[in-house]
Write a structure and sequence with these properties.
The chain is globular, with a radius of gyration of 16 Å. Helix 7 links the parallel strand 6 and strand 7. Helix content is about 30%, strand content about 25%. The protein has a single domain, classed as Vaccinia Virus protein VP39 (Rossmann fold). The chain contains seven helices and nine strands, in the order αααββαβαβαββαβββ. The protein is an alpha/beta fold. The N and C termini lie far apart (about 45 Å). Helix 1 crosses helix 4.
Length: about 230
């Protein structure tokens, strides 16, 4: 049963990709991204009572007011990073670890930051149990990134921010990409891709309207980072 549900999830992702091509500019996701989506057992990342919904193309609650993103958005954000096998990535908002598990199959190392201690502990145990040993989960405030391991080849933020955190821009390697949802929980959020050029300038574009839970940590008055 799970195999057929997983196949249906992949077909839905492909359909959603075609339907949103006019917004995203992405006609088809990279084969390696689809292979990663097919490989990761999504049912292991959702609460037991929701496992029968694990492969539905919708977000699901994981406790503590947090959610696991819908499969299409996970796949799209993974694809937008344009990762390479030797890349070192940063994830802000680790949640249950599903996004990190998918990305871990495509890169060398991921540092994943989760602010909620109980989620960080549970996710560390889950990822180790499932064999995703190139993900290091850290409990802390992801707004500040992980400067001791910067610069990163790519950064993914899986919670909405009202502005692009300047520390994350600074910790991005030239040529790298930052993928994140920008907007408040009660207004339109836009999935954005920021690319740092060789001269350290930042070029950004809006990809798609989305809905994410907010990044916590109380940084609304910290001032916006600039993107041009």
């Amino acid at each position: 049963m799970l195999r057929s549900e997983r196949q249906e999830m992949l077909r839905t992702i492909e359909m959603e990709t075609r339907m949103t091509q006019g917004f995203t500019g992405v006609a088809a996701l990279r084969p390696e991204v689809m292979e990663a989506m097919a490989s990761v057992p999504r049912q292991e990342f959702v609460p037991a009572h929701l496992r029968h919904h694990a492969y539905a193309n919708s977000p699901l609650p994981i406790g503590n007011g947090q959610t696991i993103s819908q499969p299409f958005i996970v796949a799209l954000m993974t694809d937008l990073l344009c990762s390479e096998p030797n890349d070192v990535m940063l994830e802000v908002g680790g949640g249950c670890g599903y996004q990190a598990a998918v990305l871990s199959l495509l890169v060398s190392k991921i540092y994943s930051i989760e602010i909620i201690p109980s989620l960080a502990r549970a996710t560390t145990h889950r990822l180790q149990k499932l064999g995703y040993h190139n993900v290091e989960v850290r409990q802390g405030d992801g707004y500040h990134g992980c400067p001791e391991h910067a610069p990163f080849d790519g950064i993914i933020v899986t919670a909405a921010v009202s502005f692009v955190p300047r520390p994350l821009q600074e910790q991005l390697r030239p040529g790298g990409r930052l993928v994140l949802p920008v907007g408040s929980p009660h207004s339109v959020q836009e999935l954005m891709v920021l690319e740092k050029k060789k001269d350290n300038s930042i070029v950004s574009r809006n990809v798609l309207s989305v809905a994410f839970v907010p990044l916590t940590g109380g940084h609304e008055n910290s001032g916006p980072g600039r993107a041009s």
